[in-house]
Design brief:
Blueprint lengths: L1 H19 L3 E4 L5 H8 L5 E4 L3 E2 L4 E3 L4 E4 L4 E3 L7 E3 L5 E3 L2 E3 L10 E6 L5 E3 L2 E3 L3 E6 L5 E3 L2 E3 L12 E4 L5 E3 L2 E3 L5 E4 L5 E3 L2 E3 L6 E4 L5 E3 L2 E3 L5 E4 L5 E3 L2 E3 L7 E6 L2 E6 L2 E3 L3 E6 L2 E6 L2 E3 L3 E5 L4 E6 L2 E3 L3 E5 L6 E4 L2 E2 L22 H8 L10 H12 L21
Parallel strand pairs: 1-2, 2-5, 3-6, 4-7, 5-8, 6-9, 7-10, 8-11, 9-12, 10-13, 11-14, 12-15, 13-16, 14-17, 15-18, 16-19, 17-20, 18-21, 19-22, 20-23, 21-24, 22-25, 23-26, 24-27, 25-28, 26-29, 27-30, 28-31, 29-32, 30-33, 31-34, 32-35, 33-36, 34-37, 35-38, 36-39
């Protein structure tokens, strides 16, 4: 009995020591040296990849490893192949330059693909000229931080997304620079995740795109010069806080496009020089407060099928049109916003205008119905029509007004 117990103690001690004695392995350029290093490594090992070029592909990581590059070694797919595929938990990849995946109409080729893995960290990598930069599928609690993700896509059909998340949850996408892809960041069926302090710019379609992705937040991001800005579709419980949407110009370009979303917040954002600051269609129970709308074509375009939206304490400055709508039934409210076009008065000096402000101009109503009428915008005719509408209202919905307009700009 004593001998058996001694054997058990020895075996357990060996297993514990084996578990804690992870090693560091140095990898140098050569024939399949990276793949061989990963194949021969033990779970928990650290692989240091020395500088150089590694023309290896379909590199499968099926054990818990830390892979760290020294002076950004290049992992090159030669415009033919996929590169890293991670299927193990708790993998860390940092300091690599991962480039030149192939293109395929059948497979989503990526610089790094995470499949059915948890707690994967991708930190401080350069992902260049890949179809998909980082592809995350059925993963949880992964961190994508401080990566440069850039491609040179020329059309949407043959391009992928910078960071693509599908059917995952609890992701943290933070401090990344993403450009030149189809969508900078794309989430589909992704929940409880955060997108923080990223710069997503010069992408063909959207800087950020949500589809069927609930209870997520994006905060303090920059979205600029994208084909159409940001799209949030068929989602609920989305928090959009302290982001900057700038220079998203085009026939169908928006700072934010909201379609069929509900129970969400848009707080403390900057919308500057976009064709449309916010476009809403089929949106319900939305709070829009403390935002700056400046120098946009339309600050907001709100379709008639929207309801229970509260616009509160926003600043509207130098927009061609502050608000446009395509219906007469108004199921949303404006309160205490600052409007630079407001020409009312404040006799009691309480900071609130004594007469309501109607943010929809007659010409915005006309152009909603007859878009080609925009060619006469800023002509003498538009001034005459706007002044006539103030005296004898006919087309503007009477209940679309701010009853307590702020006399001074809000400090946002």
């Amino acid at each position: 009995m004593r001998f058996s117990l001694y054997k058990v103690v020895v075996v357990l001690s060996f297993l514990i020591c084996s578990k804690v004695q992870a090693s560091t392995v140095f990898i140098y350029p050569g024939s399949n040296t990276l793949k061989l290093g990963i194949e021969n490594a033990k779970s928990g090992d650290t692989l240091i990849i020395n500088s150089g070029t590694y023309k290896e592909h379909n590199i499968n990581i099926q054990k818990r490893l830390t892979i760290a590059g020294k002076n950004f070694p290049v992992i090159d797919g030669e415009n033919k192949y996929e590169l890293f595929v991670i299927t193990a938990d708790s993998v860390v990849i940092s300091g690599l330059q991962i480039q030149n995946t192939g293109k395929s109409s059948m497979n989503d080729l990526a610089g790094i693909k995470i499949i059915n893995a948890n707690h994967v960290n991708l930190i401080n990598n350069k992902l260049l000229n890949n179809t998909y930069g980082i592809y995350i599928q059925k993963a949880t609690n992964c961190i994508i931080n401080k990566n440069v993700i850039h491609s040179n896509s020329t059309n949407e059909l043959n391009s992928g997304n910078g960071i693509h998340g599908w059917q995952s949850n609890n992701l943290l996408i933070e401090n990344n620079s993403i450009s030149g892809h189809r969508d900078g960041i794309y989430f589909e069926f992704v929940t409880e995740s955060s997108i923080v302090n990223n710069a997503s710019f010069n992408n063909l379609r959207y800087g950020l795109h949500f589809m069927f992705s609930h209870n997520n937040s994006y905060t303090k991001n920059l979205f600029s010069n994208n084909g159409a800005g940001v799209a949030v579709m068929y989602s609920r419980g989305v928090k959009m806080i302290a982001n900057t949407f700038i220079h998203n110009w085009g026939d169908a370009a928006y700072g934010i496009l909201l379609k069929e979303i509900s129970d969400s917040k848009i707080v403390g954002n900057i919308f500057n020089k976009n064709t449309v600051g916010i476009y809403m269609e089929g949106t319900n129970r939305i709070t829009v407060t403390g935002n700056l709308f400046e120098a946009n074509g339309w600050a907001m375009r709100i379709q008639a099928n929207c309801n229970e939206i509260n616009f509160d304490k926003n600043n509207f400055i130098a927009n061609s049109f502050d608000v446009a709508t395509n219906g007469t039934l108004v199921l949303y409210t404006f309160k205490s916003n600052y409007w630079d076009k407001y020409d009312g008065y404040d006799l009691d000096k309480n900071g609130v205008g004594d007469v309501p402000y109607y943010p929809v101009s007659i010409y915005s109503v006309i152009t909603e119905r007859i878009p080609v009428a925009m060619i006469l915008y800023r002509s003498f005719l538009t001034d005459v029509m706007d002044n006539a509408e103030k005296v004898l209202p006919t087309l503007i919905p009477d209940n679309l007004r701010d009853n307590e307009p702020s006399i001074k700009k809000w400090k946002l």
